[in-house]
Amino acid sequence: MAVVSPVWESVLEQTKSAQDKNVDPLLWAVQLSSSLSSAGISLPSIHLAHLLVSHICWDNHVPITWKFLEKAMTVNFVPPMLALALLSTRVIPNRKFHPAAYRLYMELLRRHVFSFKCQINGPNYQKIMKSIDDVLHLSQIFGVQVSEPGLLLVKFVFSIVRQLLDASLDDEGLLELTPEKRSIWPTVAQDMEIYNADNFNEKSKEHHDVLHKGNTVMAIEIIGEFLQNKLTSRILFLAWRNMPSHWGNFIQQLRVLAAKSMALKNAKHITPEALLNLTSDVHKFVSRLCKTISQQEFNADLGSRSLTTSSQCHGTSPSARWLPIDLFLEDAMDGSQVAATGAVESLTGLVKALQAVNGTTWHDTFLGLWIAALRLVQRERDISEGPVPRLDTCLCMLLSITPLVVANIVEEESEFIDESDCSSINQTKEKQALGKCRQGLSSSLQMLGDYEALLTPPQPVRSVANQAAAKAVMFVSGLTVGNGYYECMSINDMPVNCSGNMRHLIVEACIARNLLDTSAYVWPGYVNACATIPRNVPVQVTGWSSLMKGSPLTPLLANALIATPASSLAEIEKIYEIATKGSDDEKMSAASILCGASLVRGWNIQEHTILFIASLLSPPLPADYSGSESHLISYGPFFNILLVGISPVDCVQIFSLHGLVPLLAGTLMPLCEVFGSTSPNVSWTLPTGEELTSHAVFSNAFTLLLRLWRFNHPPLENVMGDAAPVGSQLTPEYLLLVRNSKVSAFGKSLKDRLKLKRMSKNLNISLELIFMDSFPNLKTWYRQHQECIASTLSGLVQGTTVHQIVDALLNMMFRKISIGSQSLTSTTSASGAEDVSMRLKVPAWDILEGAPYVLDAALTACAHGKLSPRDLATGLKDLADFLPATLATIVSYLSAEVTRGIWKPVFMNGTDWPSPSANLFMVEQQIKKIIAATGVDVPSLPIGGSSPAMLPLPLAALVSLTITYKLDKASERFIVLIGPALSSLAESCPWPCMPIIASLWAQKVKRWSDFLVFSASRTVFHHSGDAVVQLLRSCFTSTLGLSPSTIYNNGGVGALLGHGFGSHFSGGMSAVAPGILYLGVHRSVRNIMFLTEEILSLLMSSVRDIGRSGLSREKLDKLKTAKFGLRYRQVSLGAATTRVRLAASLGASLVWLSGGLNLVQLLIKETLPSWFLSAHTLDQDGGEPEGLVAMLGGYALAYFVVLCGTFAWGVDSASPASKRRQKVLGAHLEFLVSAIDGKISLSCDYATWRAYVTGFVSLMVGCAQKWVLDINVDVLKRLSNGLRQWNEEELAIALLGLGGVEASAAAAELIIEIGSEVIA
């Protein structure tokens, strides 16, 4: 720095004079102070720092000048940080020629760099930091242009450590081994000729070398001190968070030093291992802090270690922490709900959220996931039979969805998904983390063998489990056979004493997805050591192996492949190739194979099979096609096989679980448009001799499409005034919106790129966007469907095409009545059957357009006595048989007419209409028994006497129609469309409509009786909000073991979900667990908004009950005076805290499952603030000790809200829902800050409020760090100030440290201000 001012010339002369006279540094300082004061120079002085450092380097490099500089730094004449920055640029590059200066620099560093507080509070702080930035070029080097002094402080500390590290590596010739090969700092002097022997004050070359080597050791030790010192280590934590790439370089260099440095190995005060551990401590700062806060806040550290012995009887077993997974899996099994988003994505987010919030290892997390999925399957073992089979869907969840979830988690870690937390350079540590993740999977599956009761395979898959076990036995024995051997293995071929279980199937699923290798076969206890191998292993096998070896696809082979699932992607790709390139017969066989066992139980390749089917349903336009009609027409028989094959309930649910419903909808809409616009004259003769028409293909595609959205729910939701249940927005437009969104974004995210790696390269799926406007006929029908729901039909204009079709349909349906000259309408003619048949040779869309008028005429005729109920049911059946797609119109029209309430009820007397009296009383008694444990009253049913059972006319017509269907495979795909609609409509009608319908169907299908009664029992909750609240209360009391009922004494998952429903005891139905009932009810709750208030109220009530049962004042007072009283008091509090967490976990799960993202956001934006503003007292009778229950209430709320948020938004930013987090979370934090600042007056208990705020922030800091980045920096600063007022300094530091670059500046200054004496 050039000094031209006379004042500074005077100061320099004064310093030279004192130097020559060897004046005492203190006297020099006094004289200097007087001179600067007279000249009006304020201290500390930036100019003085430049002057003194320039004076020393290098013409006056003598001991006295260093003493002058040290005194100036001590008395704050010069800014110590600036002086150190200036020295680093001069001394470090010249350390080899001036080792003494390097030693003195490091001594000054040790004395002054750890004392920042006086410097940041001193005058000219911002100017000083700006000057340091100019000297060291910090903003340029680190690439962070924010000029906040706090951030410059972080850069300064980090730069000092980096310079010492680079210098140490350079001294030992190790810099070339680092990734960058050089230092970003000047470590070698540029002008070498100025250094000669005269410049050195060292006495000898030997002394020079000793000092040089000692300096290297000292520099390394100082690096360790920076990492170890509580103050500087936390500042370095901020560098790690905000400069990840530079931190990654730093860690790599440090590892090179630890591995290669002789100086470090010879150091007395630090070892290579200790140095690396110190860097790990910097990373663990937040998690360590969160744990410390939790222990301080709730004093539950000892209790948490004793939970396994102190609280097993209250639902707090280790598996209870994974209760949300059990609830999610069970809820996903609802056959009446087809989800637009897949279970893989939702479950992946849920598992990651629980792992973060619970703070568990991946071993415990994966173990909890497998156990929950196994419990789901076990609940289906003795389930009562019903129209909705669930076993294959549950097996899909266990053996396909769950392995895909695990694969997502493992692969995300391997790809370093979070770039802000894991730099690309810091790979070694991340690979170790990845190893831990895979190791956690492996160890969890090994431990899974201890849960024998959960591993018993259901009867239908017992042989498959045995084959999986036999495969492992063969491998261990060294016998190599192909997969085909296991396909045709008979009981005689099976190794002796080889019994498989569900773990064998899980391991096979993981091996197939490259999550495990065959080393799993040699796990202890995995195979029976006594198993013996059969002597004769067949050489030739049939099935898939035969196909892969080139055998032609004969009918015999095709039948074998239909019954046996493919075991590899290559096998299913072979079938796909045949389906696209084979002969017509081969294509038909390939379509049947794809929809066979490979779709339902080909768990290892299930998602590939689904994609192949979707691809085959949308073949591309051939390049040489020149026909006038759509190219899709020629695929009619092929499409029909696929459509019929994927129509069963469990197949549609499998599509839903894999998240491919939107894709399937996008393939079905073109088929509906084309085949619905084609005359039935277009037909094909099948190999069986049966004729297939375009109407049949259309009906199969159309009815399947309708099942992909909540087609059977709209009437009440559009006509009634109550809020619509969640999910009713699932419309065709919504499905296309989801489909287009996924297609347009596919391949851009890491998640999609990982999917692409797994997908078959042979797959051909169109990525073009699809809109409803592309399907004018479908759009017209949908508009008419909505109009029919919203209002009555307008007049039918005579002479139009629609009128002619209506006339022909009525003649076809009621030809006997018409021929008898009793016309249903004034327009019905007596044309012959042949004329009617010819008039109905029209496209299906035209028939659907006239169908509502036909139904209106028929229903009116029945109401006026012109048409008997029996003839009405028969006519409706004839209409549905003629064009099954009209079932959609029948359902929507009759449902809408029920809601309008204009039709008189009819007596179900057994004469005109079927009678339920034979078993209605039994149904009533069983309903009461099912829900007895919930405490809900069941309305009495009017049976016999003067009050016969009655139903609204349209509902009676609909149930009569359903009863006419035979329960065969051909009718199944139509019953599964109309059945849920009938159930939904009956549940919404006044009591006892649903029990009447259940009685009628139980008479028709006795084996479904239990299922029907269970469905009817749920209606009780649809008609009473109080009953829903009582059911929710039962969920809490049963889970927490707070119910006096013996059935719920132990609490936990078993008490909440039980064993499904069915005749588990002799003598009829058993009581159904409340969780099963609620999951069957919540989608039909009219006003879900009240659920947040009720669940919140029940949560806090549960906290009070837990406190009263385990933390009574008398009990704890006795423990205080007893031996080991403090220990047992902590155990009691720890057990209570764990039960509170379980209650919060249950509450969060119920909110999320009941209303999804919208209900969670309503809870956080409105319900929770209102609760805090209202008066609530948890210690009403004063029986609880010193506000412990109030504190537990705040903790429960914090855990509850964070779990709700993580379920809905995720802990990271991977899900689309996370984009909506910023606004809601920001508003909530603004509320917290305003209340802390006193701008909002709260009415809740202060202990509850404080526990909530500190608990919420600590959970957010420790478990959901991405959330902090969504919050405005000003709000973070205000919140941290509020936390400081509560002496929560550490939490305030962590919050600011995670808030991004700008917030880190405030965090650094807060770290300095608090000082190292506060930091434990």
TrEMBL record:
Signal peptide coordinates: none
Matching InterPro entries: MED33A/B
Keyword terms, alphabetized: Membrane, Transmembrane, Transmembrane helix
Transmembrane segment boundaries: 1142-1164, 1188-1211
GO terms under cellular component: mediator complex
GO biological process: regulation of phenylpropanoid metabolic process
Domain of life, per lineage: Eukaryota
Cited PANTHER family: MEDIATOR OF RNA POLYMERASE II TRANSCRIPTION SUBUNIT 33B (PTHR33739:SF7), OS07G0681500 PROTEIN (PTHR33739)
Protein name: REDUCED EPIDERMAL FLUORESCENCE 4
